[in-house]
Specification:
With about 210 residues, this protein is an alpha+beta fold. It folds into three domains: about 45 residues, no CATH class; about 100 residues, no CATH class; about 40 residues, no CATH class. It is built from eight helices and eight strands. It has a four-stranded antiparallel beta sheet with strand order 1-2-3-4. A two-stranded antiparallel sheet has the order 5-6. It has a two-stranded antiparallel ribbon with strand order 7-8. It starts with 8 loop residues before the first strand and ends in a 13-residue tail after the last helix.
Length: about 210
């Protein structure tokens, strides 16, 4: 049964007439506070997905451009993408962020606060969370290179060796080891860490997969 939306107000939109359905969903002609009209499905109105004819988004874009002058910068893009993956359920990244409880602190609703806390995004860097199961906030974020961010993924393999714990990729860099070979030794062939790190690749008893 179609819910009657006539006369209801959603954001800036006042529903004034029912029109032909869109993809089998009830659709409504709505008048925006600015005077323009827009056809919107009932579920988009009720969920808040659409709340104006588009004028609100234009106003916010114009306001952000005037207040900080950085709307076309990589720093601003990082801020936008952070919010998209945490709040936009239509984003392909949402399931790995907002969908599993990753949030953005209230302070960072405003870009001005974000850039005050984080500074300008360095060239080649991305926004990285220090603790991957916690949300975006000044205390849990830093600018990282792609290599640093990859080390922070949940799938990283932590290895303890000589009283120090690092992820496998860091050990390979530190000891000048080849990652594929070392990964095969430890993960595939179940070698002890010391043997995997200390055995020369030229030894005749290495397994065939240790290439």
């Amino acid at each position: 049964m179609v819910k009657n939306e006539l006369g209801n107000k959603y954001g800036r939109l006042l529903v004034i007439e029912q029109v032909a359905s869109i993809n089998e969903k009830a659709a409504w002609l709505s008048r925006c506070d600015c005077g323009n009209t827009k056809i919107v499905t009932g579920d988009s109105l009720r969920t808040g997905k659409v709340s104006s004819c588009g004028c609100y988004q234009k106003e916010m874009y114009g306001l952000s451009s005037k207040t900080h002058g950085m709307s076309k910068t990589q720093t601003y893009r990082s801020w936008q993408e952070m919010k998209t993956r945490c709040f936009d359920k239509t984003s392909v990244s949402y399931k790995n962020y907002g969908g599993r409880g990753i949030t953005v602190c209230k302070r960072w609703d405003k870009f001005e606060n974000f850039i005050f806390d984080m500074g300008v995004r360095p060239k080649g860097a991305t926004l990285d969370r220090i603790k991957t199961n916690k949300g975006y906030s000044p205390s849990n974020c830093k600018w990282s290179t792609r290599t640093e961010q990859n080390r922070n993924k949940r799938s990283n393999i932590l290895i303890s060796y000589k009283g120090e714990k690092l992820c496998l990729s860091e050990w390979c860099e530190k000891l000048n080891l080849k990652y594929p070979r070392t990964y095969n030794r430890i993960v595939v062939n179940k070698w002890p860490v010391a043997k995997a790190f200390e055995t020369s690749s030229l030894k005749p008893y290495l397994d065939a997969v240790d290439m």
